[in-house]
Amino acid sequence: xxYTRLGGILHEIGMTSEETVRSVVEDSGGHVDLHLSxxxxxxxxxxxxxxxxxxxxxxGSIHDGYCFLLERAAKVAGDRAxxxxxxxxxxxxxxxxxxxxxxxxxxxxxxxxISAEHYAEDYYDxxxxxxxxxxxxxxxxxxxxxxxxxxxxxxRIYDSVMVLAAPQQMRALCERVGFAASAIPGSTSRGCS
Length: 193
Hints:
Layout: H1 3-12, H2 18-27, H3 38-47, E1 51-54, H4 62-76, E2 83-92, E3 99-107, E4 110-118, H5 126-134, E5 144-149, E6 160-165, H6 167-177, E7 180-183
Helix pairs in contact: 1-2
C-alpha cells in the first residue's frame, strides 16, 4: 500500500474528494510511492481527513487532550455537531490505582457524561475516548465511527485509529486494504456493525 494507492481507494469508495487526495499526495514530501505497513496506512487515513487517532503514549494532559481529540473528531464529522465545554471532573481515587473520573462536555447544547478511568494525567482512557468520539457524528449522518484493526508486532505500542465511514465504505476499505473494523459503542445505535 502507498499514499497514492490509499488515496485512490478512498476516492473510489466516496470517502474523500479528488482534491483532498491530490493535496495529501503533494504534501507527502515525495513519499507517495513508499510502501506503507497496515499501521502506517491506518495513520495515513487521518491525513486524508477520514480518521482520528487516539494516542497510546503521553498526550500532555488529559485536561487538554480530550478537548483536542474531540475537536479533531468533530472536524472529520464535518463540524455538524457542536462540541463544547470539554472537561475532566476528578471523582475518586488516585492515579496509581486508577482514578474514576467523568469526561463531561456539551454536544449541541446537551450535556454528555462519560465515565473514565485514568492511571496518569497524560494518558487517555481508550474506552472513554472512543465513546466521546462516537458523539461527534450528527444523528442524521449515515456514517459511523469504526475502530480499525491492523497487523501488529508483539511488544510494540500502537495508537488506536477511528474512521468515520458509511457501512458499505468501511467494508470496501477493509476488503481493499486488509483492515478489520468494528463499530465503536454509540455508533451501533445508528445501524452500523
